[in-house]
Amino acid sequence: MSTSDTRVRxxxxxxxxxxxxxxxxxxxxxxxxxxxxxxxLVLEDGTVGLGESPGGTARLDRLQAAAKVxxxxxxxxxxxxxxxxxxxxxxxxPSSHERGWTTSAVEVACLDAQGKLLGRPVVDLxxxxxxxxxxxxxxxxxxxxxxxxxxxxxxxxxxxGEALDPDGIVAQARLMxxxxxxxxxxxxxxxxxxxxxxxxxxxxxxxxPGQPLRLDPNTAWTVETSRYVAxxxxxxxxxxxxxxxxxxxxxxxAGDSPxxxxxxxxxxxxxxxxxxxxxxAIQVLLTDHHxxxxxxxxxxxxxxxxxxxxxxxMHSNSHLGISLAAMTHVAAAIPNLDHSCDxxxxxxxxxDVIVPGALELRDGEVGVPTGPGLGVELNHDVLxxxxxxxxxxxxxxxxxxxxxxxxxxxxxxxxPRW
Length: 418
Ligand code: GKR
Ligand code: MG
Fold this sequence. Notes:
This protein is an alpha/beta fold. The protein folds into 2 domains: 3-119 and 380-393, Enolase-like, domain 1 (2-Layer Sandwich), CATH 3.30.390.10; 125-367, Alpha-Beta Barrel (TIM Barrel), CATH 3.20.20. It contains 14 helices and 17 strands. The chain has helices at residues 57-70, 78-89, 96-118, 122-125, 166-180, 194-207, 223-232, 246-255, 270-278, 295-307, 321-333, 345-348, 380-393, 400-407, and strands at 8-19, 24-25, 28-29, 33-43, 48-54, 133-135, 138-141, 146-147, 156-157, 185-188, 213-216, 239-241, 261-263, 284-287, 311-314, 361-362, 365-367. It has a 7-stranded parallel beta sheet with strand order 7-10-11-12-13-14-15, covered by helices on one side. The protein has a 3-stranded antiparallel beta sheet with strand order 1-4-5. Strands 6-17-16 form a 3-stranded antiparallel beta sheet. Strand 13 (261-263), helix 9 (270-278) and strand 14 (284-287) form a beta-alpha-beta unit. Helix 10 (295-307) crosses helix 11 (321-333). It starts with 7 loop residues before the first strand and ends in an 11-residue tail after the last helix. The structure holds D-glucarate (GKR) and magnesium ion.
């Protein structure tokens, strides 16, 4: 293989929309559609590497800027590819975390292409698999039975039903377990007053004795409320995730919390690690290859966490199969992955852009795809359909709060709320 064949001919960026149930969180409620962006990195020899990024106008613009920069670069030169994109974005995007979304998505596409060229799975490019399958947690959400009728559009029901109290959450957890065999559970909180969410966790603990549980209110609580919840749930939680805002607030809660604190909100870039470690603000880091710089940087992050005694879990957002494949490959390559990973996949998998078969959630785990690269294949008809849905919907950015206000006009986003 000559280096002229492994150069990038084109990076095709395709924004898509797919169906999402009315999942509640501390910002409001998920809209009927979620947005992602599919990357196809085409090499001179015709090899195509796939990537998937969260959607939204800013991320789309930045990926389009990256697409201009990478043409002609060698797909094996991922450090130079990331540096070129980073310096192209730097003048207009000062946040390293924000630039990270773009470099990460392109790195995954490069690694997929490299794996295809070499006939090896991506996990082999990350040092090899330390596990053949990766455990995921059932991601439970309070939710409505349907997206209500709005602006002439009829109500949209889904197969999961309503979950607005402890019984509803336990029923949802049972369904998740029946369908996918999950053995750990995460509840998205910050929706109802803390005592109601404490009751839901206690109901889950009773229904699934000995199975790890997590609660994540996305900073909906003050330091004082966080301490109260932590005390009430002593012995019931594997970890408490982002109860309150910021490194200083988390450190105050961590000071007397009976369980570890986790984050995907206050430590989201390399420069946040040192201040967080200095004040012992977190004990668990939810990594996410979509913004930490890609799969190799995530592997490096795992080593940094190991050095500082932080345990590792994995964050997710509404996503499809290219992301799930990338999450699975990197999680399989990390020796110190101490907790099962998050995934939204059961909520969105019906609209997946990849050809079925390569990824299956069984016994709460996803087997590491064995085919070359990420081991998944793009379904071009579905990609076209989901791109059309994106174009026709007019939706360009996620807005959980705005959507909630259209349904409940008095709704206010307040963080902390309690
Ligand atoms: O999908 O509503 C959601 C989640 O709240 C998501 O946006 C978060 O980024 O899952 C995430 C988390 O763990 O904070
Ligand atoms: Mg979280």
